[in-house]
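User: Run a structure prediction on this.
Assistant: Running it now.
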Amino acid sequence: MPAVVGFVVAASVAIAAALVVAGPHHVVRRDPTFEIGDVAARQVGIMSALAGFAVTALVFLVTQSRNVPDPSGTSFTTVLAMIVVAYMGYFSSGLLFANVSHRAEESVFDLAAAQYAGASISLFSVFLGWFALRPLFETFGLTAIADLVGWLLIGALVVGYGLLASALHRSGYATTRVTVLLPLIAVALVAAYGVVVAVLAPSARSPEATLYLTIVAFVAGVPAYTAMTLLPIAATRPGLAPILADRWHLAVIAYAEGAMVLVGFLLLAVLGLA
């Protein structure tokens, strides 16, 4: 699948560039006014509501499948897959926020900041639920609103990154310079792919690109979620805590950059440009 191959190449280049920008020995110092525990607790309720909404939407669409001309076709299957993955993303993000640690004592590794940053990236990755709107409207033949939503998604993505940038900055995992450069790197790579496909291989565009990228999002999210759930255990090991304090920011930056590139490719796909 050209879009998947393009994503792997673009993400690899973007992550390498992002790691160079972040530097190998960034010192994580969270904003002292940032009450991570309280903010994370408030996020849990939001995630619960979004997960419930995703399930409700999924049930509604399944009941309406009889009104779809081709319920087993790529378009409707893509919508359902995106909502399923979005539900899993909201649920897992909610669990990550719910398990953010409280510092009982000073430690060389700020576990709470690491958990909050990781959960925020996971939440940003779940733009699948928003992106499903365009193929959903197209499935029911509502082309005018589908085109309008395409433009609205771009604005939503900009606002969504603002929240992620704030989380990365206040948790101490990204300086102002890094928060500015990370999206620029992702946009450059995603735009380069879009231009290459448009100019050199327009036939490579496929209506199945969104579905395949949705599957990639789920597959990539599994090891990331596993790493975040195991992080509290690793942080209690005296030999690992100093290593995590010195190098974990690289994992966070790589995860954030990969998520940005993936979301960018998904946006291209739902707009029919990938």
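The mean pLDDT is 89.
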